[in-house]
């Protein structure tokens, strides 16, 4: 019951990063259709620069990044510990 909280946080962080990448792709696509000297083109360039210079990244107190790879690492570490505990208890 309490394990769904961290899972939801990990998925939300990962979705946010993916959506940021989609937004960047969309900005590049829109930039092709606008005149170079238009206000919209300048605004898009500012947004592209902002996303590229400060991409969203979520960390756990600066120790590691929070994304789907984190979830897989947690599962593999937990599984390894369970296997070790089972081996000690059966021996």
Automatic annotation (TrEMBL):
It is a multi-pass membrane protein. One of its GO terms (cellular component) is neuronal cell body. Pfam families: 7tm_7. Coiled coil: none annotated. InterPro entries: 7TM_chemorcpt. GO terms for biological process: chemosensory behavior; male courtship behavior; sensory perception of taste; signal transduction. It is found in: Cell membrane. Keywords: Cell membrane, Membrane, Receptor, Transducer, Transmembrane, Transmembrane helix. This is Uncharacterized protein. It comes from Rhamnusium bicolor.
